[in-house]
Specification:
- The protein has a single domain, classed as Phosphoenolpyruvate-binding domains (TIM Barrel), CATH 3.20.20.
- It starts with a helix and ends with a helix.
- An 8-stranded parallel beta sheet has the order 6-5-4-3-2-1-8-7, with helices on both faces.
- Helix 2 links the parallel strand 1 and strand 2.
- The chain is built from 12 helices and 8 strands.
Length: 287
């Protein structure tokens, strides 16, 4: 079964899907090996990983697609990717869909922010007109050659124009042909419940950002509310950053890595994780 077909099947099941965020091939592998059925390429984490900068629209389409391609090739589970605003107008959206589809990605989300965009839980966002983004969604759906390549329509209007506008935009984007809706950054459980009430017949995304604007709820509760796809975009990034900072502080203060060894993956374990044993065994066929 193709990765895109796997995602379709998961969306048709009763259980909500947990999709931890990864930002490179290694973290995507870790998500897969932890037993998750879907991995998400976070734009926030990708920007931080590649440039060490905030999610402020720095990365281009080609940089994002290349990272998604590398991550997708590293795992056997479906990859959902951040595609920001589509990197321009409907012509740019056309190329965005073509490039992500060629890269083997299972789904992308397109948001209605003004470019350059910023992380959905940051302040100071702006959104384009509802018609402009609806046309982008129509263009995306029209461009794809595989109906199993899913288009997720995201609106960031909650923080800009209020909750009601976000709901109205969601309706317009669903009418434009979006497969999944992503109403970003609801600020209460009541708002989350209202999202499902407004859209009972289309899969919904919940975005669990630590210390963000949306309540952090257990997966069971999110499923009961009515969310189908739950993203954890920065959990891996924040955990990895904490661990690296802790290790470097230990090395700096002690002059040795010894105190941190019990909190590190060892050399043989890491080589096994990245597939060295299989590669060396395969290599023997050509000697």
């Amino acid at each position: 079964m193709k990765k895109r077909e796997i995602l379709r099947k998961l969306l048709a099941s009763e259980k909500p899907i947990m999709a931890p965020g990864a930002y490179n091939g290694l973290t995507a592998k870790l998500v897969e090996q932890a037993g998750f059925s879907v991995v998400y390429m976070t734009g926030y984490g990708t920007t931080a990983n590649i440039l060490g900068k905030p999610d402020y629209g720095y990365l281009t389409l080609t940089e994002m697609v290349q990272n998604a391609k590398n991550m997708g090739a590293a795992v056997d589970i479906p990859l959902i990717a951040d595609a920001d605003t589509g990197y321009g107008n409907i012509i740019n959206v056309q190329r965005t869909v073509q490039e992500y589809e060629l890269a083997g990605i299972a789904a992308i989300h397109l948001e209605d922010q003004v470019f350059p965009k910023r992380c959905g839980h940051m302040e100071g966002k702006q959104v384009v007109s509802v018609n402009e983004h609806a046309q982008k969604i129509k263009a995306a759906v029209s461009t794809r050659t595989d109906d199993d390549f899913l288009i997720i329509a995201r609106t960031d209007a909650r923080a800009v124009n209020g909750f009601e506008d976000a709901i109205e935009r969601g309706k317009a984007y669903a009418d434009a042909g979006a497969d999944i809706l992503f109403i970003e950054a609801p600020q209460s459980i009541q708002e989350m419940e209202a999202i499902h009430k407004a859209f009972p017949n289309i899969p919904l995304v919940a975005n669990m950002v630590e210390h963000g604007k949306t309540p952090l709820l257990p997966i069971e509760e999110l499923g009961q509310i009515g969310f189908k796809l739950v993203l954890y975009p920065v959990s891996v990034l924040f955990a990895a950053t904490f661990a690296v900072k802790e290790m470097l502080e230990t090395l700096s203060s002690h002059g040795t890595i010894e105190p941190s060894l019990d909190r590190m993956t060892n050399f043989p374990e890491f080589n096994q994780l990245i597939g060295l044993d299989e590669l060396m065994e395969w290599e023997k066929n050509f000697k």
